[in-house]
Every structure is written in structure tokens, then in C-alpha cells.
């Protein structure tokens, strides 16, 4: 089945663009049409085949794909131990994905098989969504969006990364978006999207809020705080990278 990513018609692109360029980040509430957001959530919970991805020693490592709908919070103890050990001495991350971004696909065989994707459905990006992002990001020439489903379970995290130009294997990346699809969340459960202020003295964070979209200019530093063991569920999102010609 195909799902159209149809956005809410009430968004004012020019006003959003001013906010984005004054801050370098932007949150858009009620981003998709409600029915579309609800359908995406249902598919992510019931139909997506996930694998756990570990960033350790500048390498991406991945488990085999789980069965669709798998939600146990007690598997992958080795992945958790490896990510925690790597975090103490350098860059690390640990979370579930449905596929790899095309530019990250040269990885060990255990993490490869990216053609499984989102399984029973594919996404169709509406022209209005493309036009909105072009205006807001001031990147009128961008044409490509690579999308990845994310799931952060208790113990999962993504350390601060600066997203420098050298990290962009395509040389064309211009922005990142995170479409939050978690219906209920509390800030003390962790999983917050966080940034440093320009003077690095203040931390700003966004709690996962259902059907909100966070847009981040590239390069820009950010991280996802560790999800607590008291969290009553998983942090779900649809993440995307935006590329120019």
C-alpha cells in the first residue's frame, strides 16, 4: 500500500521560513493531515520490520531484521553493552531503523539488506510538502528526500554529533527533518531532541509530540537523550535527509 504524506493546509511557509532562519531549527505542530499521521503511526507499530543499529568506533553495525510488530524491550543486550562502552570513549548511538540511508549502505553485511524498507507500504511525497520545505529551507533546488523510520526503546540514545560537511558522503545534504509519531510521551522518559545554543551555555530540547515536524539545518549539532527504563513505550519518528542537485 502507498501512503501520501499530505501536510496540513494551514501552514504559512513564509512565516515558518523566517522562524527557521532566525533560529536554525524549527518545530511545526500538526504537520500532517490527522488521518495521514494516524495511519503512519499504525503502520510503524504493526507492520515495520526493524533492526537495531549501533554506531561504534565510527562503524555502523546492525542486527538482522525483527519480525513486523516486534516490540520487546529486552532483546539486544550485546548491542546495548557495545553502545554504552563506545559512548564512554567516543561517538556512539543505539536505536532501531527500518532501512539505512542510501549514503550509509556500505556497512557490514549484518546491517545491509536495506531493500526491506518499510515493508508493506511506500511513501509518496506531495508536491505541497516539497514546496513548503523548499520555501522554509531556502533551498529551491533540492529534489531528493531519503526517509528512514526510527524507533528509540529504553536504553537507546544518539550522542551529540555536529553533522559537519565532511560527514556528508553525497556533498548535497542540506537539512534533516524528524516527523514525531509518538502519541503519548513524558519529558522524564528521555528521548528529547536537544541542541546547544550559539554560546553553548544553554540547552534547548523538544519532547516528542505527535504529528510535529522538527527541521534542522545542515550542518547543525544535535542529539537525542537516552530513553529511560521507566518509559511506557517507544519513541517513534520518520526521519529524512534533504538533498540538493
Describe the protein's architecture and organization:
The protein is an alpha+beta fold. It has a single domain (2-243), classed as q2cbj1_9rhob like domain (Jelly Rolls). The chain is built from 4 helices and 14 strands. The protein has helices at residues 13-23, 34-46, 77-89, 127-137, and strands spanning 2-5, 25-28, 51-56, 59-62, 92-97, 122-125, 144-152, 157-161, 173-180, 193-196, 203-206, 213-217, 222-224, 235-243. The strands form 2 sheets. Strands 2, 3, 4, 5, 7, 8, 9, 10, 11, 12, 13 and 14 form a 12-stranded antiparallel β-sheet that branches. A two-stranded parallel sheet has the order 1-6. A hairpin with a 2-residue loop joins β3 and β4 (59-62). It is globular and about 45 Å long.
Query: What is the assigned CATH homologous superfamily?
Result: q2cbj1_9rhob like domain
Number of strands: 14
Q: Quickly give the structural class.
A: alpha+beta
Q: What is the 3D form?
A: globular
Topology-level CATH name: Jelly Rolls
Tell me the strand percentage band.
25-35%
Task: Kindly summarize this structure in a few lines.
This protein has helices at 13-23, 34-46, 77-89, 127-137; strands spanning 2-5, 25-28, 51-56, 59-62, 92-97, 122-125, 144-152, 157-161, 173-180, 193-196, 203-206, 213-217, 222-224, 235-243.
Amino acid at each position: 500500500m502507498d501512503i501520501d504524506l499530505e501536510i496540513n493546509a494551514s501552514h504559512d511557509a513564509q512565516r515558518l521560513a523566517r522562524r527557521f532562519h532566525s533560529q536554525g531549527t524549527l518545530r511545526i505542530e500538526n504537520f500532517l493531515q490527522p488521518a495521514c499521521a494516524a495511519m503512519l503511526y499504525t503502520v510503524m507499530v504493526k507492520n515495520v520490520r526493524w533492526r537495531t543499529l549501533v554506531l561504534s568506533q565510527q562503524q555502523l553495525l546492525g542486527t538482522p531484521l525483527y519480525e513486523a510488530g516486534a516490540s520487546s524491550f529486552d532483546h539486544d543486550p550485546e548491542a546495548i553493552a557495545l553502545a554504552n562502552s563506545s559512548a564512554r570513549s567516543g561517538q556512539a548511538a543505539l536505536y532501531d531503523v527500518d532501512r539505512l540511508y542510501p549514503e550509509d549502505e556500505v556497512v557490514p553485511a549484518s546491517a545491509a539488506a536495506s531493500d526491506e524498507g518499510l515493508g508493506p507500504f511506500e511513501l509518496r511525497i506531495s508536491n505541497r510538502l516539497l514546496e513548503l520545505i523548499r520555501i522554509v529551507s531556502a533551498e529551491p533546488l533540492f529534489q531528493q528526500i531519503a526517509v528512514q523510520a526510527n524507533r528509540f526503546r529504553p536504553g537507546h540514545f544518539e550522542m551529540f554529533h555536529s553533522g559537519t560537511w565532511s560527514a556528508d558522503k553525497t556533498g548535497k545534504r542540506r537539512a534533516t527533518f524528524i516527523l514525531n509519531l509518538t502519541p503519548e510521551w513524558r519529558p522524564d522518559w528521555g528521548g528529547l531532541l536537544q541542541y546547544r545554543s550559539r554560546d553553548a551555555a544553554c540547552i534547548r530540547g523538544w519532547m516528542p509530540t505527535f504529528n510535529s515536524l522538527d527541521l534542522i539545518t545542515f550542518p547543525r549539532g544535535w542529539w537525542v537523550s537516552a530513553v529511560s527504563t521507566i518509559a511506557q513505550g517507544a519513541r517513534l519518528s520518520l526521519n529524512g535527509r534533504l538533498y540538493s542537485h
